[in-house]
Specification:
By secondary structure, the chain is mainly alpha-helical. 52% of the residues lie in helices and 6% in strands. It has eleven helices and six strands. Strands 1-2 form a two-stranded antiparallel sheet. Strands 3-4 form a two-stranded antiparallel sheet. Helix 1 (53-75) runs antiparallel to helix 2, helix 4 (105-127) packs antiparallel against helix 7 (165-187) and helix 7 crosses helix 9.
């Protein structure tokens, strides 16, 4: 990690030590392995769950969904709906964004849908709009839509900024890969065979690491949906562009999130 300019905070990590090789004072709070969480299913690294799908899903619910639900329960008790809506957009939605960036799309989107449902329920309570009315599909000037679909758009597009975390999860994860795969490829040459497999259109899925399999499929789905997935001005998102950029692509997170808005 040091080669990539990253600093690991032990107090924010869990270490999987099935053989119990680490013993003694190092396990005490404040030691080398502070606040260690051991499980045969996986581990927590910088707050992100890594392990079996079941472990990752539970980690996302514990770390990303439940704290938001606790916040949402308090927002509807505020003196004015305006206070609640402002905090819902600025503090509530952002509670899941980090996990979408560091978790493969399948698990992140599944819990993201649960997060979106909790957000919709809170939005409905604050605006006194029933969920039935909020999700009712109605004809519009273009394709059919709903009040909730409109609320999920950013304010610049006449929405309420209640971003859809389920839809954003693949874009968020791809943006993280765009920022880090180039530096990682140079810091860890042993990863080159796995990363270079992304370059080949005919690469078999079993030639890719599981997270990269999901990322590759997510990119295909995005392209099939005709979303404007770009890394920079007039630069399409391709694995060649990502891997050949030694220092990664800056500010790509916002660029890809705006692709979903369109």
């Amino acid at each position: 990690l040091g080669q990539c300019g990253l600093e690991l905070r032990p107090d924010k990590c869990g270490v999987y030590d099935r053989l119990e090789l680490v013993k003694g004072e190092e396990f005490t709070p404040g030691g080398t392995f502070a606040d260690v969480h051991k499980t045969p299913e996986g581990l927590m690294v910088v707050g992100s769950p890594i392990g079996t799908p079941a472990f990752v899903l539970e980690g996302l619910r514990q770390k990303g969904l439940r704290p938001a639900q606790e916040l949402y329960a308090k927002l509807i008790q505020l003196p004015t709906a305006q206070d609640g809506l402002t905090l819902l957009r600025s503090s509530g939605i952002t509670k899941y964004s980090y996990y979408a960036r560091v978790t493969p799309p399948a698990e992140a989107a599944e819990v993201g849908a649960e997060f979106d449902q909790a957000t919709a329920e809170t939005f409905g309570a604050l605006t006194e709009i029933s969920l039935e009315e909020l999700f009712e599909v109605r004809p519009g000037l273009g394709k059919e839509s709903s009040a909730w679909s409109q609320a999920q758009l950013p304010a610049r597009l006449m929405g309420a900024g209640m971003q859809c975390q389920e839809a954003l999860a693949p874009l968020a994860y791809l943006s993280s890969l765009a920022q880090c795969l180039g530096p990682l490829a140079r810091a860890f040459p042993e990863l080159q065979p796995h990363l270079n497999a992304l370059r080949r259109a005919d690469a078999e899925e079993d030639q890719l690491l599981p997270p990269l399999q999901q990322a590759n499929q997510a990119l295909r789905n995005i392209k099939d949906s005709r979303l404007a997935a770009t890394l920079g001005k007039d630069v399409l998102f391709t694995w060649d562009q990502v891997l050949d950029r030694a220092r990664g692509w800056p500010r790509v997170q916002r660029r890809l999130s705006r692709a979903w808005d369109i």
